[in-house]
């Protein structure tokens, strides 16, 4: 109990010491900038990352890879559990040597599974390393942009809201995350610009304020939405037109087939008549057969 109390006292003393140092630094800052006041801003790194398209795309791919790793681990765990169940059910039938061999196999499988899990999701695993490689370039870019903003706008402190710093309250007017995002987007567009016109448009947008840039972005988004709506309307019209054409074509094909069938019947009828004219004996034989049948019928009646 005494040891716990002493440890608590030491933690409290360290906390007080850190607070004292922080307050001292703030006092120096306030005294040095008493004439103009302290300028403070903050960013939200999580918000910035979520709005960088390249990070979102790469993060989605990494999440899919992590899910495949998790599925592999679940498969290995199921194999180990299946081996344990089989050993438990067959234990009474096995010798001590076979039981020991089975247990050794299970131990090897468990070690392989744990190593695989550690290699993928451990503190220095693939997921941590690849996530850091994904975030690091953007963090470096944000750091350079924050340094530039701090120098140009004379900020004394710029904090990261998503870090370990506890911010009990933060006024939105001090949030410069959108300014940082704008700089990142501007840099990407400058890199992608190929023609002189595109480069000129990027330079014009760079000279806009944040509010003007937002207004331009909203107008561009509205135009893009109208364009998408118009394309959807054109696609719907095309679909209706194609369906009407398909119905009309089916009706035309049906009428055409009827005409062809009627024409074929007429051809067959004409061919039959001509065949009868070319073979008069056939008609006489048919008539004689009919008369013979009639005479036979009359004789029978008598």
List keywords for this structure.
302 residues; two-stranded parallel sheet; 2 domains; mainly alpha; single chain
SSE arrangement:
Layout: H1 2-32, E1 40-43, H2 45-50, H3 53-90, H4 96-121, H5 126-153, E2 157-160, H6 177-192, H7 196-206, H8 210-278, H9 280-301
Parallel strand pairs: 1-2
Helix pairs in contact: 3-4, 3-5
What does this structure look like?
This protein has 302 residues and is mainly alpha-helical. 82% of the residues lie in helices and 3% in strands. It has a two-stranded parallel sheet with strand order 1-2. Helix 3 (53-90) packs antiparallel against helix 4 (96-121) and helix 3 runs antiparallel to helix 5 (126-153). The longest helix is centred in the last third of the chain and has 69 residues, at 210-278. The termini are far apart. 3% of the residues are buried.
Entry summary:
This protein has 302 residues and is mostly helical.
Number of domains: 2
Order of helices and strands: HEHHHHEHHHH
How many angstroms separate the termini? 142 Å
The tally of helices reads 9
Binned strand content: under 5%
Largest sheet: 2 strands, parallel
